[in-house]
Design goal:
The complex is a heterodimer of chains A (168) and B (284). Chain A is mostly helical and 168 residues long. Chain A has helices at 2-25, 43-54, 61-75, 81-99, 105-130, 137-167. Chain B has a domain at 134-279: Thrombin, subunit H, CATH 2.40.10.340. Chain B has helices at 2-17, 27-43, 46-66, 68-125; strands spanning 134-142, 150-153, 166-169, 172-180, 185-189, 196-201, 207-211, 220-222, 235-238, 250-256, 262-266, 275-279. The longest helix of chain B is centred in the middle third of the chain and has 58 residues, at 68-125. The chains are: A mainly alpha (168), B alpha+beta (284).
């Protein structure tokens, strides 16, 4: 029974990492039914930002790096571009975490904007300088906007989840 | 100012170099590793190509596996939509089938009616009515009695006319011979009180007896089924149930009078009859 409990706890604890890898292997979009991709957002960025900010030990930097490598492989981007972008996000988030005295959801939400900005900036610089991939800036902007917009929803979901597993 | 900068540098350094309790790599190390990988990948070194090939193969396979839930979900959505479409289609097809069944019955009836009408039309040409007797006669006297509606024709037993023969005016049944003389005959009209012929009503399988009432626009249908309501503008045909008249001879018609009562009138106006045809009228 104790073994099962430990195993269950480990699974629940690893779920963010599993989600991170899963979303790297498989890029889902919100309206999967149909062709409209208007609400596309970067789930990984929200996940990384939230967990590095709140529970940095649950989502190791190594996992973030590896997820980025997988992401690049799946999308055919220069290897390491997404990793560096995610790590930049993690760096910025770590800085926010260290600099924040009293965490507030709204403050976290708005600090997500510069985090996204720097992360995407690094990504764009690498794409523009190290590959011939043609990029739709509008799409990236749209994606970034919805990533920012959906953050409170996921913040709530992740908070509830963490509260749930901490009770167990 | 200097303190703020120091704080910033300390925070950045802390973020870069600090490893958590469970962190194996610092951010600084991983960022350097990423930059190295980007550089190596950009240089397109042979070992990097091989490494990328292996990585691609592995990641693609895992990616295919990880996309299966989505593929399955799409499959489920598609099948569910198909299922509901099939339900709707099934409902529609059932209704259509019911409609076609009704149409089929209607067609069968119309087909029968058509055959009967064809035969009836043949009556007008008086060639293929499959009677072994046919003769034209002139109306010589029209009885105006309200109790006995009959006419006298100028053909009798001399011409082969027998009692019970059927008399037509144009294409319509007019009556039957009730009295024969050598040179003349009496025809009892359908309007007569004593006239009773088996009939059927258009677009229905209803059989009845058409009785005369003395009035050409007010005939009576008796022995109708219970709760049966006569509809206006329906043709009444002879049913041939008596074994004497040919089925399908148009006899009368239902109509609405000024007070919206459904009445029955003869298709043939006996008052206008001048030349009639006399047949043996048997259903061969």
């Amino acid at each position: 029974m104790q073994y099962f409990r430990t195993f269950k706890d480990k699974i629940f604890k690893s779920l963010p990492v599993i989600f991170l890898y899963y979303s790297s292997f498989y890029h889902f979009t919100l309206p999967e039914v149909g062709q409209i991709n208007f609400f596309s957002f970067n789930f990984q960025m929200i996940l990384i930002y939230y967990y590095v900010l709140k529970f940095p030990d649950d989502l190791g930097f190594g996992n973030i790096f590896l997820a980025g490598i997988i992401n690049d492989t799946v999308l055919g981007m220069p290897l390491g571009a997404t990793s560096l972008s995610y790590l930049t996000l993690s760096l910025f988030t770590s800085y926010i975490r260290n600099a924040t005295l009293r965490p507030l959801m709204t403050a976290e939400w708005f600090t997500f904007i510069p985090a996204l900005f720097f992360s995407n900036l690094v990504y764009l610089v690498i794409i523009n300088n190290f590959s011939n991939v043609v990029f739709y800036y509008v799409e990236l902007l749209q994606n970034t906007f919805f990533t920012f917009l959906f953050f409170p929803i996921f913040h709530y979901i992740f908070s509830q989840y963490q509260r749930l597993i901490s009770k167990d | 100012m200097s303190d703020n900068r120091d704080d910033f540098i300390i925070a950045i350094r802390y973020a870069l170099l600090k490893k958590g309790a469970k962190q194996k790599f610092s951010l600084f190390f991983l960022i350097l590793l990423s930059i190295s990988i980007i550089t190596l990948d950009n240089l397109s070194l042979p070992f990097m190509k091989n490494a990328r090939g292996v990585l691609n193969d592995f990641v693609y396979r895992v990616s295919v596996v990880s996309s299966q839930p989505s593929v399955f979900k799409k499959y489920l959505v598609k099948k569910t939509i198909q299922h509901f479409n099939i339900i709707d289609e099934n409902k529609f097809l059932k209704e259509e089938m019911e409609y076609l069944k009704r149409q089929k019955f209607n067609n069968a009836y119309l087909s029968t009616e058509n055959q009967l009408l064809k035969k009836t039309l043949d009556l007008s040409s008086t060639k293929n009515f499959e009677q072994d007797f046919f003769i034209f006669a002139k109306v010589i006297l029209d009885q105006k009695s309200p109790f006995l509606n009959s006419i006298l024709i100028n053909k009798g037993t001399k011409n082969g006319i027998e009692k019970g023969m059927t008399v037509f005016n144009r294409d319509y049944l007019m009556g039957s011979v009730i009295e024969t003389n050598y040179l003349s005959s009496r025809v009892l009209l359908l309007t007569d009180l004593n006239s009773k012929i088996p009939v059927m009503i258009e677009d229905s399988n209803v059989n009845a007896i058409l009785e005369g009432t003395g009035f050409k626009k007010k005939l009576l249908l008796s022995y109708l089924p219970d709760n049966y309501e006569i509809e206006p503008e329906k043709i009444i045909f002879s049913s041939g149930k008596d074994g004497f008249l040919i089925p399908g001879i148009p006899v009368a018609k239902t109509y609405l009078d000024k007070k919206n009562n459904i009445l029955i009138k003869l298709l043939n106006d006996p008052d206008q009859a001048l030349i009639v045809s006399v047949t043996n009228g048997k259903n061969n």
